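Dear support,

We are seeing what looks like truncated structure output for some complexes. This example has two components. We would appreciate it if you could run it in full and send us the complete token output so we can diff it against ours.
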Amino acid sequence: MASGKTITLAIMDAPYESPNSTTALRIIDAALQKGHNVNVFAYEGAVSLTMKAQAPHPNPVKGTSVEQEQHPTTKDWVSALFKLAGQKGAKLDWVNCGLCVDERGAGDWIEGPRRGGPKDFLDANAAGDATLVIPTK
Amino acid sequence: MAKILNIVETAYRATIEEQDDTILWLNHMLKNGGADIAILLRANAVNYAAKGQDASGLSFGGLKMVHPPEIDKDVAKMIEKGIPVFLVEEDAAERGLSDTDLIAGVQKIQRRAIPELLDQHEQVWHW
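Here is the complete output from our reference environment:
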């Protein structure tokens, strides 16, 4: 059941670099689980979270294959969050900063996110109930 | 429109590659979009207000950087645009920055005055 509440997040970290990405995904998941709408402004390295070409890998240290390792990718997690939003009747609006995408060549992403810019973040902040920025350090 | 205070403390993160500071750039864009923005420079980011910064001369394999970052000028442009820019006085002093080192228009505040500054804004974004 959708709550009608909306949280907005600005995130910056590239995938597989810091716990900030995981923290952001945890918050998004928790909000969607409660039926809250979530706006995400993926800025700078965070635009790579949704790149379609991400692929799981085996683990030579453990001696596990790709199948055994079941290595999660951030694009699969984000894709799962879109599905969760649909199940909960909530809206996940994920905006990838277009200029950040261009300078990284990160334009090929999964279904769900859209291209946008700082004005989208500003509008989401004005329309939403709460905003959290998670910067990279 | 909510009054938003942006606390900037991470300094020179990818400023060469980006040719600017990404948080100052973002806030400049938000100001252009109508946001009521203010900036508080703290920790190493107080150096963004040091005038005369020169990052020119970089060249890799003969490929020269034509437009290096000019963070002090970017901050000055934000002030000209009406964005209040505050700076933590003690953080500047600890880094040897005196008043004559700083660009005009930056408003120095003491650490003990930060809570009052926070209270003057509806939102605080800590970068």
